[in-house]
Amino acid sequence: MIPSSQRKAELRAGRLAARDAIPAAERIERSLALAEHGLNRIEIGQGRVVSGFLPIRSEVDTRPLMAGLRSRGARICVPVILDKERLEFRELVPGAELVPCGFGTSAPGPEAQVLEPDLMLVPVAAFDAAGHRIGYGGGYYDRAIARLREKGQDPMLIGIAFNCQEVASVPAEPHDIRLPAVLTESGLRHFG
């Protein structure tokens, strides 16, 4: 029997290769379609905090979605890796200077306000129809969500991916946090 960590690594590599194979211009079009679906379906109140992410490599470009949510009154933040265990979410305001933050990511510097998200747009390497996800293997989001829940908060979670990142089944481990929904270029899908 293949260990779940090895199976996850294989699924991650396969789905990231499929995502990488999408031509850049098509990725832009798919990202815009995803943003349109998201803006039609995501309800977020004035002043509520949304954590998005700035795209790296061939990820979905969430900037149009984040800009649309900001125009509706949401406060936007992005993750920053603090150390091998922790993320914090720093407010992203128009014109903010971005600094390198590890793993090829960038975010506002330490002077930016740290926020706790009401809605988290979660990057996904692979996902299945039960809402199980594979990230990049560091467990940062699982730990960040668990910490928020320990503090009595329960942010809404929406995975962000392209359709080609769906797999038949993701091996779920006890520490993995299931996503109730995933947003792709085809729309917002809720899982049971």
UniProtKB/TrEMBL annotation:
E.C. no: 6.3.3.2
Cofactor(s) the protein needs: Mg(2+)
Entry coiled-coil feature ranges: none
Reactions it catalyzes: (6S)-5-formyl-5,6,7,8-tetrahydrofolate + ATP = (6R)-5,10-methenyltetrahydrofolate + ADP + phosphate
UniProt KW keywords: ATP-binding, Magnesium, Metal-binding, Nucleotide-binding
SUPFAM superfamilies per UniProt: NagB/RpiA/CoA transferase-like
Regions that span the bilayer: none
Pfam families assigned to the protein according to its UniProt record, in alphabetical order: 5-FTHF_cyc-lig
Enzyme class, broadest EC rank: ligase
PANTHER family named in the record: 5-FORMYLTETRAHYDROFOLATE CYCLO-LIGASE, ATPASE INHIBITOR/5-FORMYLTETRAHYDROFOLATE CYCLO-LIGASE
Family named by the database record: Belongs to the 5-formyltetrahydrofolate cyclo-ligase family.
Descriptive protein name: 5-formyltetrahydrofolate cyclo-ligase
Organism lineage string: Bacteria, Pseudomonadati, Pseudomonadota, Alphaproteobacteria, Hyphomicrobiales
